[in-house]
Every structure is written in C-alpha cells, then in structure tokens.
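Hello again, I could really use a second opinion on something today. I've been puzzling over a protein and I'd love to understand its fold better. I'm sending you its amino acid sequence along with the backbone structure tokens. It would help a lot if you went through both lines with me. I've dropped the whole record in just underneath, so have a look.
***
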Amino acid sequence: MRIAITASGPSLDAPLDPRFGRAAYFIIVDPETLEFEAMENPNISAGGGAGIQSAQLIAEKGATILITGNCGPNAFRTLEAAGIKVIIGASGTVRQVVERFRRGELSPTANPNVAGHFGMGGGGFGMGRGMGMGRGMGRGMGMNQPFPPPPSQGLSPEEELRALREQLDILREQLNFITKRIDELTKGEK
C-alpha cells in the first residue's frame, strides 16, 4: 500500500501541509516500512485546476489513500474516480500522521471539506464559478473558506503554533487580495 500525504517539506518530519492542490510537497510513503518518495508539487502555482492536477499526479504515483488537511470538491471527485480514498482534517508531522494511520485513528471521508472554488486563472463572477478574475491576478490561491484550526491532539505546542501560523499567513494573503480587488472595483464608484 502507498499513501500520499501533503507536506510542507521533503521529509517524514515535515509538518503536514493543510492544503491539497497547492501543498508544497507530496510524500508517497509505505506505511509499513516508512520508505518514501518526496516530490515538490508542480501545481503549486497553477492558475487554476491545481487540485485536479495534483489528484492526477497522486494517482499516477500509485497511491491508494491521500491524507491531507483540506480537499475541495473537484479534487475530491478526481481522487474518488481514481479509486483513491481521502482522509481530511489531519495535522502534525508526516511521521505522526503515518503512525496515526497505522493505529487506525484516521478514516476516509465521503465528502470534501472545502467549498468549491477556483484559483486566480479563469472564470469571472457569477455562474457558481467562485472568484477567478481571469486576468492572472493574485498568487494563485483559491478563494475558499478558511481552514479549520488543526486539532491539537498529538501535536506539541510548537507544532500546533507552526501550523496555526501557516494558516494565518494563507488567510492574510487571501485578505490582502480581497481588499485590493475591492479597492480596484470601487475606484469607479467614487
């Protein structure tokens, strides 16, 4: 069995990255032997469809389970179609997540935990397409709902603090983008 885990670095001791499509790294690991392959996510800067592309990459690597913090509906459907079970809401280091998986503490979910969204690549407003601006604005992050805080079970205070700071940085980037875009759209109203 091979499981894929989103990670912020290329080792078993790296913290789990709570994002799926735009995770910094994917660690493909055999949970019994802990042999692993770390790969940078080539989709981290994709203009749109990062979740779908990342799901296809995970499938190509032969993973049968994905463990991550959050997963949107498009990526979830792609993973499901490839026969990959999805475990969401995980946190801690990759090694800790593998241990929790081996102890049977993590179970696959039947639904994504992030609302549908687009990155900053295509679309426009309306028609259920989220906030893609169609002009390549922003840094490629989807305007989805914020991540839930990671559960503190099994995390040291330092690990939980690091995970919370990462989430805060992502939320600040999203807020800056939204504020800038509101300013751009309201300039003509004054």
User: Anything to note?
Assistant: Residues 112 and 172 are 23 Å apart (CA to CA). Residues 118-153 have pLDDT under 50 and may be disordered.
